[in-house]
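Case study B.
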Amino acid sequence: MSRNRQSQTVNPQSFPGPDDIVRTVLSNGITILCRTNFNSPSIVVSGYVQAGALFDPDEKLGLADFTATALMRGTQGRDFQGIYDALESVGASLGFSGRTHTASFSGRALAEDLPLLLDLLSEAMRQPVFPDEQVERLRAQWLTGLAIRAQDTSDMASLIFDQIVYDGHPYGRPEDGFPETVQAITRDDLVDFHRRHYGPKGMVIAIVGAVEPEDAVAQVTSVLGDWQNPGQPDTPPLPPLEPLGETVRRHHAIPGKSQADIVMGTSGPSRRDPDYLAASLGNSVLGQFGLMGRIGDVVRERSGLAYYAYSSLSAGIGPGGWYVSAGVNPANVQKATDLIVEELKRFVERGVTAEELLDSQTNFVGRLPLSLESNAVAGALLNIERYDLGLDYYRRYPALVHAVTPESVLAAARKYIHPDKLAIATAGP
Amino acid sequence: MTDQLTKTTLSNGLQVLLKEIHTAPLISCWLWYRVGSRDEVPGRTGVSHWVEHMQFKGTPQFPASVLDKAISREGGVWNAFTYLDWTTYFETMPADKIDLSLRLEADRMVNSAFDPDEVASERTVVISEREGNENEPLFRLGEVVQAAAFRVHSYHHKVIGDLADLHAMSRDDLYNHYRTYYVPNNAVMAVAGDFETEAMLARIQELYGPIPAGADPARLARPEPDQRGEIRLSVEGPGETTYVQLAYRFPAATAPDFFPLTVLDSLMAGPSSLNMFGGGISNKTSRLYRALVEKELAVSVHGGAQATIDPYLYTITMTIHPQRKAEDALTALDDEIKRVQDEPVSPDEVARAVKQARALFAYGSESVTNQAFWMGYAEMFADYDWFLTYLEKLAEVTPADVQRVAQQYLRPQSRVVGTYIPTNTGEAS
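Model:
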């Protein structure tokens, strides 16, 4: 056991790489990624199709998510109870949800039940029937979910934050819609959305666990290899994002609550931007490292204002949010937002020290074995594909992380964060 | 030998469980103390949880500013949890860095400072945590249901504690609690991962052996008397959504009836996963889902069974359909309970519950962290054999056992029925 804190003994060759990830593209466009892991007798299947909320009309916002969720409500071969009886009888799970860019799916099972899981995946995507009764039942559940969301201070602060930062941009719209837009969606809308947008073009599926890659590829090919949808449109490009010209504050009142939530910040880089890693390491110093970085230190440890206070960088295909979240007593909202603004000013004025940066760099590299330990590796494989990172990405990752300098962090901080042009969203009593 | 467990007790009473798992270069170290909200009297409710918070505030050797960075810098994750019967601290680290975790836990078993300024600052943090909980309708409902179910036993209050006590407790209350319960003879250390048992045991002996044993902590002994009649109550609060929670008396984890009740839970409400990491599965084919959600009386229903030292509760929680009344859902639920009491379940349903449990075990075994969790967790209310023989004991359950425990435990005379009545009728603006 080594006691030398600076030693970095992680062996990058143990991470997923070109020699142990099998990547195959079927003739209809489906990309399959596999990595074997026989440490546990289970498998994970996850992936996405190009059927996200970017296709939603404003007046039917929630359509992509509703369609994705309704796929499992009945197929040509099985009714709702039949689908879930097959899954739950063997302790397996499978679910779909509509995100902004794609509709994603995720399932897990004992390895012996992989064929069943893939059959159900294929049936749900290719032969859903959207039974009237099930659609209305799902709608009532959905509306209840939105009523609960309207009472959740954290959800509402996030929603208001997105509406401020992404005003007029698709990222300003919640994927699960609003009560009136979900009421406007008809069964025909679901059928039509599915017919147009579900298809093999741009579909990615990752399979990780106790299965040989050739076997997994053969199984996917047998259920999805002949899938075609010639009319499947390309996902529309994102419009440019107009930056905020000044700080915008908005409060969403939810009477009767004992705590207020704050979400404040701006938009950050996309995952493919060259300064993504510099921004991500900067964010770690700002509001992640240790007990939630500088933000946690100032808001929680020194001021005792909050149980949670941290920052997030949610880079994706487009410019995701870069924001600070905190839950505080309603009387302390102003005090907490002032403290956070001061920290953001300090961050863009002076950046991070070499020592702070090294702490986060060793953390980013050191935690890789843990984050790639289980079948959660499926998510890492999907990231590689979605953002075109290269199959050797995790092998190169330690060098990429250590190439970031305090200067590049400062440049990223100044490029994205303007403390006089923030969105400050609060929700509470 | 990968799955060989070593179990020993140091001369000061510290129990040690070690399991070599060489699948990834990781080690997970958990230190469990036999103390939780069950050890708290009125005036000091919440003290166990608050002490857990103070354990992150530093010692002379590892001051808070060092402590909160040391683990993260090495790429580890750490956290702590306080529950009814126990408090636990864990670190999962790259294998060659685990010594930091071993030294840190040995140090804070005895040397935490409980600085008065830190106590004052953490008081508002814990109060903020409670205020965040109070934002949730199900916390408000669950708190009064639990309090009604236990008039005498200290399972009466929530782990977070009552606000009055969080305002009133002193530094000395916290410190005395720490000194009383944080002794090696009241602790279990569980380590799993990529190490050699002999070397690990020697290091644990070296670090923990010199810590003197303390007096065995006295325990509260106030068994809850039988409940003599159904208790109905309601809570009002913001929102549009009605929730109903039922709480039935449930036996201790070591009682033979625990296992038929686990099968009963699985087929009534879907299997409860006891994994801390690894997730569960859906419950859409469970009897209650079919009777309540498919009949559009509720939009969701969940069961909750816990493994505890003393008899605790089995809860069923329903989110009522927006167009239906709580009473109608309760009537339908009672019909299902009567059915399982009157008619034997089929052997297939029992076999299905066993397969579901097997799958959940497989998911839980994907991570070294969850494997180490189970080694200590099982010791808190039974012993590791309880975990190892869990699937066998489920497999021995017969349909007659299930019917008998349904008749014995799901009696209206020994339940609490709580309703959350929403006071808003529309979305706030």
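Residues 16 and 189 of chain B are 5 Å apart (CA to CA). The remaining cases will be described in the next quarterly update.
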